[in-house]
Write a structure and sequence with these properties.
5-stranded mixed β-sheet, 13% strand, Rossmann fold, single chain, alpha/beta, globular, binds 5-phosphoarabinonic acid, 2 domains
């Protein structure tokens, strides 16, 4: 189960809730009837594609990679890697054989990966909807050369392309070289592509269960598209909008589980790229707690009061550890002996929420029963629907990202790209 609790924000801004709630319901109607801005990019509402052909092919390819024991090099940037990295890190921490590259231009990181590959066999999954993005393009060129040197003609069997059905350099390359390929539907934007092969192939290759992911997504859409007033996607959009309209221009996603670090990165892209346009939009930021309470805690408690906070809390853990009793008690921790780590973490959350509220930070909470495939995919869907609702309430098109092009134009000019 996933629960959204925003009782303190409701109390703080009680007078404004009902009119903003009505706006949110209208925005949800526009999403469901597909009549809002950017409605040509609503293919994500129909995901995941559950046709047996699609599921069987994805599972078969992922199983081949997983069972081989080889590394999978996942090449992509933005929406073409963040979703997979978020779910894989949440489920497996660092215990998996997926490496992500092509999301920066660091010679150090690429050199380190190339060194690792001297002694490891590997598959490549290059992911780019446009097929023309520079960062993954360069990484793929370098890794393709390595694969061809190492495996000769059979390199083609180890390269899997995820791209547009018809256009772009990657599609041309895949067709010419005979690489296996998966399609990113035309009507699904990068940051909404988690439940396409963009996210699913690396996630399944890491060992996740596709049936749980599908179950979570189906239940997520059922919940998030319902007209029920308790719909968490709707409530979250309402709460965020109320805070924003009361001068809180920054949202902190705060998690007490470090496994959710990259989930927050995915969330930042989803909300930042969807809302930040036309001079508007909440700035999405994130912290990992309790770690960052010892660095960012001071600012959150006591800095400029322009922030509201959404906590992500995992309620139950499949594995836990009890704090031992120590005869000497020199560290004075015996008052905790017999308590589990998750209990202490829970109290840290409760104490932090109360402190931040006292410090003038409005707070709300998403509770996840467990950190597993089903809850994670359900939460992703709730966030996707919620950002569509709040984007419409803001008056922007939540599905485009025209601002992303500006740095590219300058960079290409500086690099002397022909035709620029
Ligand atoms: O959300 C988006 O659309 C972007 O973040 C893209 O995913 C990102 O720029 C990568 O684009 P592409 O998949 O075309 O390489």
């Amino acid at each position: 189960m996933i629960q959204f609790i925003d009782e303190l924000i409701r109390k703080r801004y009680a007078a404004q809730f009902s009119s903003i709630q009505k706006e949110a319901e209208t925005a949800l109607d526009r999403l469901i009837s597909r009549t809002g801005k950017g409605n040509e990019f609503l293919g994500w509402l129909d995901l995941p594609d559950q046709s047996p052909d699609n599921v069987i092919l994805l599972e078969k390819t992922a199983k081949e990679i997983h069972d081989s024991g080889d590394l999978l090099i996942s090449i992509g940037i933005g929406g073409s890697y963040l979703g997979a990295k978020a779910i894989i890190h949440a489920l497996f921490g660092d215990q998996h054989r997926i490496r992500f590259i092509g999301h920066h231009l660091s010679p150090l990181e690429l050199t380190q990966l190339l060194k690792e590959l001297e002694s490891r066999d590997f598959y490549i999954n290059v992911i780019s909807k446009s097929g023309t993005t520079t960062e993954p393009g360069i990484a793929f060129r370098i890794l393709r050369e390595l694969a061809e040197k190492k495996y000769g003609e059979s390199a083609a069997k180890r390269i899997i392309v995820t791209t547009d059905a018809n256009k772009g350099a990657l599609r041309t390359l895949a067709d010419k070289k005979g690489y296996r390929s998966f399609v990113i539907p035309d009507n699904v934007g990068g940051r909404f592509s988690l439940l396409t092969p963009v996210g699913l192939l690396p996630i399944l290759a890491a060992g996740a269960d596709i049936n749980q992911i599908i179950r979570g997504a189906v239940s997520g859409f059922e919940t998030a598209l319902s007209q029920d007033k308790q719909n968490p996607a709707l409530q979250y959009a309402v709460s965020r909008t109320v805070c924003y309209r009361n001068g809180k221009g920054i949202e902190l996603l705060s998690s007490f589980e470090p496994r959710l670090h990259y989930f927050s990165e995915w969330w930042k892209q989803l909300f930042g790229e969807s809302e930040g346009k036309d001079g508007k939009g909440i700035f999405p930021a994130s912290v990992d707690l309790t770690t960052d309470l010892h660095s960012m805690g001071q600012w959150i408690q006591d800095g400029v009061r322009s922030v509201f906070e959404t906590f992500l809390v995992v309620d139950h853990y499949q594995e836990d550890i009890k704090i031992p009793y120590d005869e000497s008690d020199l560290d004075t921790l015996n008052y905790l002996s017999g308590r589990s780590l998750s209990y202490v973490n829970q109290k840290a959350f409760e104490g932090t929420r109360a402190a931040h509220e006292d410090g003038g930070v409005p707070t709300a909470v998403f509770h996840l029963d467990y950190l597993d495939e089903e809850h994670l995919s359900k939460l992703c869907v709730i966030f996707e629907v919620s950002v569509a609702i709040s984007g419409y309430m803001l008056g922007v098109n939540p599905f485009d990202q025209p601002g992303v092009e500006a740095y590219k134009r300058n960079m290409f000019k500086l690099l002397g790209k022909p035709g620029i």
